[in-house]
Amino acid sequence: TLSTLASERLRDAQLGQILLRLFGPLEDAVRDHLRQQIDWLELEPGETLFRQADPGDALYALIDGRLAAFAEGRAGGVFLNEILPGETIGEIAIVTGAHRSATVKATRRSLLVRLARSDFDAIAAQHPIVYKAFAQVLVTWLQRSHDGQYRQKEAREIALIAHRGEPSMMERVTQSLANALSLIG
Q1: CB-CB contact of 104 with 89 (8 Å)
Q2: Which of 14, 55, 59, 67 has the smallest number of CB atoms closer than 10 Å to its CB?
């Protein structure tokens, strides 16, 4: 019982931080209305959140775990970005309904919240301040990304494990990896 209660309170606090980041300070009634429309979602490593060209029908926020975005093309998937806890996915789609520009998959066990576009529209119709606050957050985000103010995420862990004890192969792989990483800083 204690564990369940603690887990519920932690989720509530995490959701509160996400709502504050997305919409700024809101009246209790508006914030509670938003909370009621949020769905919790868990993904296992390798599981797909959505695919490139899927309808942009929801906004997601990553609470815990790690996600990766990939552009799909003829040559396969190209890594675009890593999504860390506290970050959101689908800000533009929730306003415009545009199709997804990338495929997003879990790279670790992940916990997310989802706000459907239809629910967002209904809440914004009842509480116009929600749309205005969200628009302000979007404009700030777009200005920062346009001005190059977003930091480039750094890898946290890289591990090389020798295969069958072949030191020469390990040296070649290590050198190739170092050369490739040096190209991107």
Answers
A1: yes
A2: 55
According to the model, what pLDDT value does residue 177 have?
Answer: 81
Token pair for residue 90? 């689908």
Which residues does residue 82 pair with via DSSP β-bridges, in sequence order?
A: 68
Distance CA 30, CA 122 (A): 12
**What is the end-to-end Cα distance of the chain in Å, rounded?**
49
CB 105 within 8 A of CB 68: yes
| CB of 71 closer than 8 Å to CB of 52 | yes
Lowest-confidence segment of 48-57, 131-140, 158-167 by average pLDDT:
158-167
CA atoms of 7 and 3, how far apart (whole Å): 6
Describe the chain by its helix, strand, coil percentages, rounded to 5: 45, 25, 30
113 neighbors 57 (Cβ within 8 angstroms): no
Contact 122, 33 (CB under 8 A): no
- The strand pairing partners of 72, in sequence order, are 77
- Residue 54's Cβ-count burial label (10 Å; 0-12, 13-18, 19+) is middle
Closest CA to 30 of 125, 94, 140: 125
CA 172 to the chain's CA centroid: 35
Predicted confidence at residue 1, as pLDDT, reads 82
* Model pTM score: 0.72
